[in-house]
Amino acid sequence: MPELPEVETVRRTLTELIVGKTIEEIDIFWPRIIKKPDDTHQFKTILIGQSIRSIERRGKFILFQLDDFVLVSHLRMEGRYGLYKNGEERTKHTHVVFHFTDNSQLWYQDVRKFGTMHVFKKGEEFLNEPLTGLGVEPFSEEFQLPILLHSFSNTTRNVKAVLLDQRTVVGLGNIYVDEALFRSGILPERKASSLTDLEVTLLHEKIKGTLQEAVDMGGSSVKSYVNGQGEMGMFQQRLDVYGRKGQPCNHCGNEIEKKVVSGRGTHYCPSCQK
Questions:
Q1: Which residue positions form the known binding site?
Q2: Residue 31 a catalytic site member
Q3: Are residues 103 and 87 in contact, defined by beta-carbon separation less than 8 angstroms?
Q4: Confidence at residue 274, expressed as pLDDT on a 0 to 100 scale
Q5: I need a surface site. Which of 89, 124, 239, 245 has the fewest CB within 10 A?
Q6: Interhelix angle for 197-216 vs 145-153, to 10°?
Q7: Residues of the chain by 3-state class (helix, strand, coil), percent to 5
Q8: Considering 113, 157, 264, 270, which one is annotated as catalytic?
Q9: What is the DSSP letter of 39?
């Protein structure tokens, strides 16, 4: 699943590609992607004629800011957007096509068909699911050390489970939780409330640093992820533990291990992480 760095990279590339374009027509080939309104005809009626004013991000969600509405899109496991010219042959996994008045098209492609789209009147998007109840943005002023200290001290869960919970900090997923914990020297299954203030301080720093580094490198292309221009990310070349089971640790040389923690395949170094 694309995480904050990948979604932010998609947001940036789409901003360059489609801001200012006006929707002329919409083709929907897999109606289940459209969650609100649940009538695809109404979905089209609402959006046709609207121009894209800006593109924002909230956690792992992309927010297309239109004239009067906001289209909230989640890529889920393998969703992607791409800009194409009119007349190009639609691929098998293209499920929604937005036709623009300048003869270009925005395709939403999704091999697993898990992606979602919600439309709200402007100002109502944060009052309804799926954006209600989300935690703080890691790059915002609100993401201060007390946020983590409070979240860790008031739970019996392990540290990985807390960080994966989008009600705590948004945008973190399996890749960047594993990487931030490695950089902090903390085992993923460690009870969150057992962390010292010094450990939480370091983790807070490494979360922000890891995410920023990944954004700067366009995200991680460990499976099918590409940005809005079809380009791969490059942060996978700097991954220390994720996806490296059985390989030597870049820091100590011992073997990277993998186990299931909080229902997720989790990579760690048993020597570097205590």
A1: 93, 112
A2: no
A3: no
A4: 85
A5: 89
A6: 120
A7: 30, 25, 45
A8: 264
A9: -
Contacts of 67 (CB under 8 A, 6+ apart): 50, 51, 53
Give 10-15 contacts, CB < 8 A, sequence gap 24+.
10/62, 10/75, 10/80, 10/81, 10/227, 10/228, 11/55, 11/56, 11/57, 11/62, 12/227, 13/227, 13/228, 13/229, 13/231, 14/55, 14/62, 14/81, 14/106, 14/228, 15/54, 15/55
Name the residue ranges covered by the structural domains of the chain.
4-127, 145-268
Q: How far apart are CA 21 and CA 228, in angstroms?
A: 15
Distance in angstroms (rounded) separating the CA atoms of residues 194 and 226: 38
Bridge partner list, 22: 51
Residue pLDDT, tens place only, 91-123: 999 999 999 999 999 999 999 999 999 999 999
Task: Clarify whether 3 is annotated catalytic.
Answer: yes
Catalytic one of 21, 60, 80, 206? 60
Q: Is the predicted pLDDT of residue 233 greater than 90, yes or no?
A: no
Binding residues for DNA: 93, 112
60 among known catalytic residues:
yes
Put simply, whether the predicted model's pTM sits higher than 0.70 gets the answer yes
Q: Which fold has domain 145-268?
A: Helicase, Ruva Protein; domain 3 (1.10.8)
Q: Which CATH superfamily is domain 4-127 in?
A: MutM-like, N-terminal (3.20.190.10)
146 carries an active-site annotation: no
Cβ–Cβ under 8 Å, residues 244 and 238: no
**Active-site choice (3, 8, 125, 179):** 3
Cis ω before 188 (30° cut-off from 0): no
Q: What gap in Å lies between CA 10 and CA 229, rounded to an integer?
A: 8
